[in-house]
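New here. Your pick:
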Amino acid sequence: MTDDVITRLITMLDDLDADVDATIDLADEIAATGDRALLPRLTAELDRTIAERNAYARELLGGVVAGLGGVETLPVLVRASAVDLGDDQDGLATEIVDLVQADPKTARGLLQPLTEDDDLSVAHRADWALRFLP
């Protein structure tokens, strides 16, 4: 998997006329590779789409990041989720909950420090995520 595929995904996410099913299929294809080397680029793109207030891209990229990085991506996902873009965040919230429940011990270790974050939105979102520990 190369950066070309990520560039294609980003182009599709930024294009309001792009085929939604094809975009989701490509995101799933990237996540299925298991190529953790893609995480820095995907995380940077996630940050960019949040800055641009693109809730659709945040949902899809959050899913790809979660799929590739697993529970270790919880801090990235919680920070992404803490930004209010006016959407319901169903997909991103589900990714966070699934990761918390898949590896509760690691999740607790990653989320607990975030409850002390200077950004109260991040702290509240981390506290919310901790509620899903079994």
User: Anything to note?
Assistant: The two ends are 35 Å apart (CA to CA). The chain has a mean pLDDT of 95.
